[in-house]
Write a structure and sequence with these properties.
The protein is mainly α and 102 residues long. The protein contains five helices and two strands. Strands 1-2 form a two-stranded antiparallel ribbon.
Amino acid sequence: MAADDLFKALADGTRRTILDELTEKSGQTLFEICARLSMKHGLGISRQAVSQHLAVLEAAGLVETRREGRYKFHDLNVAPLRHITERWLDPHTTPAREKDPS
């Protein structure tokens, strides 16, 4: 997983909304995700578009899929987010202070 893929995936608002929905309920099918996006967020995007967004999220490692019979379930994977935050947040250092703008 490259950091560029992660940031590309997070740059899109629809993909962030999909991640929000998977945070609330992991293990959803494409149909469930589409329904939640439509009902809760008023997003009228096609199943194909949602599927493409999921592919970007999966390429970034943020979504993992599993098959059970004819169903494909999408699960949230937060490991890439932890990895990227650990890149800049060292627990052995004190947090940087913001500079006073005045």
